[in-house]
Design a protein that fits this description.
Elements (H helix, E strand, L loop, with lengths): L20 H17 L16 E5 L5 H11 L6 E6 L13 E5 L13 E7 L7 H14 E12 L10 H6 L10 H4 L2 E11 L11 H11 L1 H6 L9 H17 L4 E10 L3
Parallel strand pairs: 1-2, 1-4, 2-3, 4-5
Antiparallel strand pairs: 5-7, 6-7
Length: about 270
Amino acid sequence: MKYTSPRHYASMKTYLLPDDKLETARLSVHHRIITKAYEGRLILAPVSLGSNDRVLESAAGSGIWALEFSASNAQNNLPLDIECIDISDKQFPRRHPSNIHFSVQSVTNLPKEWHNSFSYVHQRYLILAVNDSLWNIAIKELFDALVPGGWIELAETEVRLLSYGSGHCSKRLMQLGVYLPNLLEQVGFIDIHCETRRVPIRRSLNNDGLDRSKHLYDLWMGMKAPILAGGGYGIVKTEVEFDQLLQGCLNEWDESDEASSTYYIIVAIKPA
């Protein structure tokens, strides 16, 4: 199926979401949703960072997490050195503190000089970007990048635990999801634990002003181009069908008290 999207993508083959201004705005909302779900915490790993420690943020996107994390530590006179990487620089901020560095890198092929360099690694939502074999490589790269005793923190959505609602449209849409296996133990991490949050989507159930159903709508709309370019995966055949399906889902999410998203954050340590 031939489909030309008005959105900009770094590579539809490697990542299903765009890297344009609309996606940057969505990521800002997503950041607020995740932070709210975890009681306002930017970090869950029990790591104690010092002025000589380095932090790596993989899949940094707009860098919103790194900017807030840096600011929170600066209030405690701790100007951490933070490396932010992504496969595209389209969303990198034009202005940022000098202790935060942005570069185009792939987590599946980190610079060799970064081995044993970072005390803490933070990564969010690559579930739409890599398959199982690439996840093995990525986790091994992050393991090697950490110093002994360093912590990793991965935030993902467990697609099998998603409960967008019981409506017909939502059930069809869920077939497009992918699953991320937990590979940390296989690579060598220890003290692995997970914190899970189930967040209702319907706005009236949250009372925080965050429109989660619209956020989900924007998320899936951002994936329209690669989905259609991939033939619709047997779910939809045309752009009209996709738009109708997504509008149906939005209506269901807005009306359902059961519709929810399940997030999980996994933290683990590299043996000393």
